[in-house]
Structure formats: structure tokens, C-alpha cells
Amino acid sequence: MLQIIAGVDIGGTSTKYGLVDNEGNVLYQGSVKTQFPDVNDYIDELENAIREGLESLTDTYELVGVGIGAPNGNYFKGTIEEAPNLPWSGVVPIGKLIEDRFGVPVALTNDANAAAIGEMVYGGAKGMKNFIVITLGTGLGSGLVSNGEMILGHQGFAGELGHQSIKTKGGRQCKCGQKGCLETYVSATGIKRTVYKLLADHHIDSELRNYSFVDLNAKIVADHAKQGDALAIEAFEYTGSILGAKLADAVVYTDPEAIFIMGGLAQAGELLFKPTIKALNDNSMAIFKDKVKVLPSKLDNQTAPIVGAASLIIQKMK
Ligand SMILES: [Zn+2]
Questions:
Q1: Domains of the chain with bracketed CATH
Q2: pTM to 2 decimals?
Q3: Exposed, middle or buried: residue 105 (CB in 10 Å: 0-12, 13-18, 19+)?
Q4: Contact 63, 307 (CB under 8 A)
Q5: How far is CA 75 from the centre of its chain?
Q6: What is the 173 CA–ligand 1 centroid distance (Å)?
Q7: How far is the CA of 151 from the centre of ligand 1 (A)?
Q8: What values do phi and psi take at 241, rounded to 5?
Q9: pLDDT per residue over 239-250, tens digit each?
Q10: How far does the centroid of ligand 1 lie from the alpha carbon of residue 181, in Å?
Q11: 234 CA distance to ligand 1 middle (Å)
Q12: Tens-place pLDDT, residues 269-302
């Protein structure tokens, strides 16, 4: 029988899931809401949704595993721990709950680690053994691969680059409780905060002043930058300069062949990549200068989290 893997990406508001074949094609996808106060009700909903998907496929497939990407996902224990944006507090044994429903292997890790494995199995990092994946959404996630293996760390939480501080003291308040975290500057939300900071500090005539904080998004900033809006361009240069400098720090830890950037903010292309690459090289010592490729992800932006989660099972089966 043909084999299929369920890839599940648990987000704060909704959970996206899909059925992925061995080549990384998403044959079915959908979403369920995440906000169930009781985790068992949530698992009921997700199980039904996945089973419906399996029944809708034209060929008969055997489900061989469920891969899950989740905030604060612990790979070793299959748990989600103290995730600030999810409705369940404490330590939640999501992996075990899903395994009990389907009777197949379940692999769970944080969403950015899942994206990194997805990039290695199906994307631009095929054949690479040392690379970093940065996901730029509401926050900044990262997955580090060294010698062909994901760096998990002692507890299973390694690679939280979004929460390294860019300042020795102070900086923007992060929802993790710390100040100055990288993701408060470099993320879809971070660039909005930067636009408002620039609007407050400078007297530049920018159309961005017509947007409320709620209405503004990274795409609007990118569109204005492409039309020559000086403040929008400065917002991207500021964002890229911070990202590049912190990537230079990451490079000295793991000596990667490439850094892949994915997610909404990465869609801005050169606007973000150019200042990022410049700052990376400006802050790199000679042995790393101009040696690390900074590339857009080769995974489809829409399905990358699902494919990434499913690839955890491919990786496990190897
Ligand atoms: Zn933080």
C-alpha cells in the first residue's frame, strides 16, 4: 500500500494539517481551530479532520506517522511546554495523545526545527550537512542543523535565536518576558514596531503614517519600499542590519554552509536580503566573510510548515 504522513503545524489560532506523500507533495490540507480549552476536545477535532482527509484521497494510503511542529515543542518528550500563545498551560503530552489515537509513530519538535528538516529533506538544503533555517512570521524561529543532524540541546529546545538579546541592557519588550529579543525587531511584528519608531523619530513624509498599527503589515511596508518610500526602505535596512549582525553570531557557533530564510517577511526579497547579507559580512571574521550563502527557502511558503512537520517522520524512518 502507498504510504502517507500527516504533517501538523500547531499555531496560536489555528492548526494546519496536511497529508504528505514520500516525495513531499501535499495531497490534502485543511485547518482546525487551536483554541479548545480542553486539549482532549482539540485532539478529537484534529483526529476527525485527519481521518476525513485520509478517506477523501482517491488511492488507498497507509498512514505511517504523524509529524508535528509546535511552539515550545520538546522533541525528546513529545510535549509542548509553557507555550505562551496556546490555550493549554504547563506541559502537554501532545505526542502521546496523538499516538494513542492513530497507533503510528509521532515526532514533535518546535515549528522552526520542523522547517529546517523540511528544507533538508525536500528543499534547498538537500545534500547539505550544516545549515541554519530562519522563519520570519509573527516571531522569529530558527532551526540549526550540524553534521546532518538537528541541534536539539540538553532539554530539546536548542536554537531559540529569536530570543537572543540584541542589546546588553534594555530594548523592546518581548512576550517571552525578556527585553531586546531579536524577534521584537526582526519579524513581521518587529518591522511594524520599527516603522512606528521611525515615524516617531524622524520627520520623513511617508505614506505609512496613514496606517494604524492594526492595519499595517510587512507586505504593506514592502510594497511602499518598492515604490521608493524612504521610511519603508529604512525600516528594511534597519531590520536587515540587525538580522545580519545576529546571524554573524550564529555563524561562529555552527559554521554553516548556508542560511535559509523563509516566512512572510522573507517574501520582501532583496529589500531584506541585501542589508542582511551586508551586515552578516560586515560582522564576520575573515574565515567566514563572504563564505556563508544566504538564500530564500525552496519550500513553498504556504505549505512549508506542513511539509516540514511531515519530514520529521521521513527523518525518523531513516
Ligand atoms: Zn523573547
A1: 2-118+302-317 (3.30.420.40), 127-296 (3.30.420.40)
A2: 0.90
A3: middle
A4: no
A5: 16
A6: 8
A7: 20
A8: -65, -35
A9: 999 999 999 999
A10: 5
A11: 24
A12: 999 999 999 999 999 999 999 999 999 999 988 8
